[in-house]
Design brief:
Pyruvate-ferredoxin Oxidoreductase, domain 3, alpha/beta
């Protein structure tokens, strides 16, 4: 199997690293070789966080080249746009319909781009916008938006749903398993 690449991006505190851990564990359980990388500079201050996961029969590097990523899983719209140059021509962008005000915007020096979704539509092979933060809030905890996004990604991949559920049950603290299973199902069965 050709090596596939997934780039997960967002801002600190959104559960990006947890999502990449879940994804990596599922891929390992499915029998793939997996390599993962993460960058989290100012994440505790709402800065950007990026994790890449590459999988296949044989993976040589955790980092994809520009134009080589099959999926971008974005926890925030502007972060999707910042990383779009990694997407392949036929790549899929799965985006949380959520806006985080970067520091220059919050300070009033810049404006959040009003046309982010339109730009993504022009640049992506396929774009799916999901209100993951709102859906997670309706389930009782906005922090579960990361598992909603993992569910959406899982629905686009050819990996048995049972493997995803097995990993969630193993990795998530017992008191949050039910919430996360509902969050996964919400993303997995989401219809744009």
């Amino acid at each position: 199997m050709k090596t596939k690449s997934i780039l997960i991006c967002g801002v600190g505190g959104q559960g990006i690293l947890t999502a990449s851990d879940l994804l990596s564990d599922v891929l390992l359980l499915a029998g793939f070789q997996v390599k993962k990388s993460e960058v989290h500079g100012m994440s505790q201050r709402g800065g950007d966080v990026i994790s890449t996961v590459r999988y296949g029969d044989q993976v040589f590097s955790p980092l994809p080249a520009l134009g080589e990523t099959d999926y971008i899983l974005a926890f925030e719209k502007l972060e999707a746009l910042r990383n779009i140059n990694y997407l392949s021509a036929s790549g899929i962008v799965l985006v949380n319909d959520f806006e985080w005000q970067p520091l220059p915007v919050a300070a009033g020096f810049e404006k959040y781009p009003a046309d982010t979704v339109e730009q993504l539509q022009k640049l992506a092979g396929e774009l799916v916008l999901i209100p993951a933060t709102r859906l997670a809030g309706e389930l009782g905890n906005e922090k579960a938006s990361n598992v909603i996004l993992i569910g959406l990604l899982a629905s686009r991949m050819e990996i048995d749903e049972k493997l995803w559920l097995e990993v969630i049950k193993k990795k998530v603290p017992a008191k949050f398993i039910d919430l996360n299973l509902k969050a996964f199902a919400s993303g997995y069965h989401f219809k744009p």
